């Protein structure tokens, strides 16, 4: 595989605030290592030449040379004749082919599997015989599941028919497929900032030029500084009017990672502006139904798109990846039938359809969704309250929001040390994702996203690990922790 070059300017943006602490070369190598570990820097990327990077960052070439040497010594950098310095994860840290054991993984906002899932799966296997006479390749979804999904939208207040539904391999597949079909290279694509990283990766991979609009969390530190929580509406409307993005990727309910929900009247204004600018709003409702104690009624976002012109402006996606389990790879797209046909036509170059067995399982589970969601709300309420309590006891200086739904808390650390903390936490057996992973320009160093879906015992262990990591930061502002080849 030939390495992908990265310019000094692009690396500078990714590095964000990397200075501070003991020595510049340690700071630089640690930050590059973190970028690689949490996926912001892809394996097989060619780093800029030492002199060029030194000039860009305003440090001596010797500093860059020392940083590269440290990375090379630890197995994160290879110098290939003719190809320069190429970063790569050492074998032990490469994306795991096997689940990682012995380490607490708080880097994902996932939910434990729904109780009783095995029994439901066994029952679904019994339904398979009805389909065995066909080819088994299903690019659009079995009729009974499309109808059950349409019925869920109707029950929630959005008239929908089965021909407006396409079943996908989870919501991520839906995002990537829509991006591939709707975006041409160089098109502008509006995103929230911070946002869900795998979404902006897919939008960018399809050639989109990202136009970020900020969403502020409702933490005390932010409120004290006068920042209104939620979407920066003037910036959002202006971006729609001036940039004419082809697509806008939004999570209006329990936004990942901030936990914010967009007010109903704001939804109406955003939809009207999108319809006027010809922008398709890709509304990700993967976590929209994880309501813990939010006040008010929130129908699906597309219910606010009333006129014929506006209706086409909203494409919704959903998934059972969290309500049921991440291991059941079923998601869906709700769009007008003409777009569904285009998406189905475009699908086969990438995959040949959704597994029937999993579709049958989800068809059985959908009528039980109200009970499933009530069970999840109970779990998440207990988790949120436990995490809040533990963080308040252990880290009184952190500003922890009180999300009324979703699965994560976007914690303000009060200092721009999220990347350092995430690195140090690895040394104590905890994987967490640093704030900058949720931005595109190295911002959010003050924030850490913590899921409250794990059980109390896991959360206690995570808070203990964060405590040790936080203490190590206080001792060494940039931890000289050595490299972690044996952590996983
Ligand atoms: C906001 C959001 N969208 C999409 C996804 C991907 O969902 P799926 O597992 O259905 O692909 C996730 C998963 O974490 C998510 O948080």
Automatic annotation (TrEMBL):
One of its GO terms (molecular function) is transaminase activity. In the C-terminal section; belongs to the class-I pyridoxal-phosphate-dependent aminotransferase family. Keywords: Aminotransferase, DNA-binding, Pyridoxal phosphate, Transcription, Transcription regulation, Transferase. Residues 22-90 form the HTH gntR-type domain. It holds the Pfam family GntR. Transmembrane segments: none annotated. PROSITE patterns: HTH_GNTR. The keyword Disulfide bond does not apply. The keyword Hydrolase does not apply. Gene3D superfamilies: Type I PLP-dependent aspartate aminotransferase-like (Major domain) (3.40.640.10), Winged helix-like DNA-binding domain superfamily/Winged helix DNA-binding domain (1.10.10.10). This is PLP-dependent aminotransferase family protein. InterPro entries: Aminotransferase_I/II_large, HTH_trans_reg/aminotransferase, PyrdxlP-dep_Trfase, PyrdxlP-dep_Trfase_major, Tscrpt_reg_HTH_GntR, WH-like_DNA-bd_sf, WH_DNA-bd_sf. The lineage of its organism: Bacteria, Bacillati, Actinomycetota, Actinomycetes, Micrococcales. It comes from the Bacteria.
């Amino acid at each position: 595989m030939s390495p992908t070059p990265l310019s000094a300017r692009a690396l500078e943006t990714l590095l964000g605030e990397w200075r501070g602490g003991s020595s510049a070369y340690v700071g630089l190598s640690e930050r590059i290592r973190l970028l690689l570990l949490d996926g912001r820097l892809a394996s097989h990327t060619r780093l800029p030449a030492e002199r060029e990077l030194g000039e860009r960052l305003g440090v001596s070439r010797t500093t860059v040379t020392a940083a590269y040497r440290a990375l090379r010594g630890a197995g994160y950098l290879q110098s290939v004749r003719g190809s320069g310095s190429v970063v790569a994860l050492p074998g032990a840290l490469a994306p795991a082919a096997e689940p990682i054991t012995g380490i607490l993984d708080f880097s994902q906002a996932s939910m434990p599997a729904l109780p009783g899932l095995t029994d439901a799966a066994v029952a679904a296997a019994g339904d398979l015989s009805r389909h065995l006479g066909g080819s088994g390749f299903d690019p659009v979804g079995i009729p009974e599941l499309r109808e059950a999904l349409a019925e869920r939208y109707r029950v929630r207040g959005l008239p929908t028919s089965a021909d407006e539904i396409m079943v996908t391999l989870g919501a991520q597949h839906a995002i990537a497929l829509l991006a591939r079909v709707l975006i041409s290279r160089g098109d502008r694509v509006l995103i929230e900032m911070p946002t869900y990283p795998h979404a902006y990766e897919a939008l960018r991979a399809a050639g989109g030029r990202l136009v970020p609009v900020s969403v502020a969390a409702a933490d005390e530190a932010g409120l004290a500084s006068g920042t209104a929580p939620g979407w920066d509406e003037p910036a959002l409307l202006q971006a729609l009017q001036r940039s004419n993005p082809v697509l806008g990727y939004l999570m209006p309910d329990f936004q990942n990672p901030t936990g914010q929900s967009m007010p109903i009247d704001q939804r109406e204004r955003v939809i009207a502006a999108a319809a006027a600018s010809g922008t398709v709003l890709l509304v990700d409702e993967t976590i929209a139904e994880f309501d813990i104690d939010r006040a008010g009624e929130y129908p699906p976002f597309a219910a606010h798109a009333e006129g014929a012109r506006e209706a086409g402006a909203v494409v919704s996606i959903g998934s059972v990846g969290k309500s049921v389990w991440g291991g059941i790879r079923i998601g869906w797209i709700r769009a007008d039938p003409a777009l569904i046909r285009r998406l189905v036509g475009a699908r086969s170059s990438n995959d040949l359809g959704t597994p029937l067995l999993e579709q049958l399982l989800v068809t059985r589970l959908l009528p039980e969704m109200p009970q499933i969601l009530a069970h999840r709300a109970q779990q998440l309420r207990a988790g949120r309250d436990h995490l809040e309590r533990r963080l308040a006891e252990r880290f009184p200086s952190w500003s922890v929001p009180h999300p009324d739904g979703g699965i994560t808390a976007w914690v303000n650390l009060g200092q721009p040390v999220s990347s350092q903390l995430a690195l140090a936490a690895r040394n104590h057996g905890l994987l967490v994702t640093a704030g900058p992973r949720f931005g595109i320009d190295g911002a959010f160093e003050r924030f850490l996203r913590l899921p409250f879906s794990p059980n109390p015992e896991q959360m206690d262990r995570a808070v203990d690990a964060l405590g040790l990591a936080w203490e190590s930061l206080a001792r060494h502002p940039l931890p000289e922790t050595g490299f972690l080849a044996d952590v996983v």
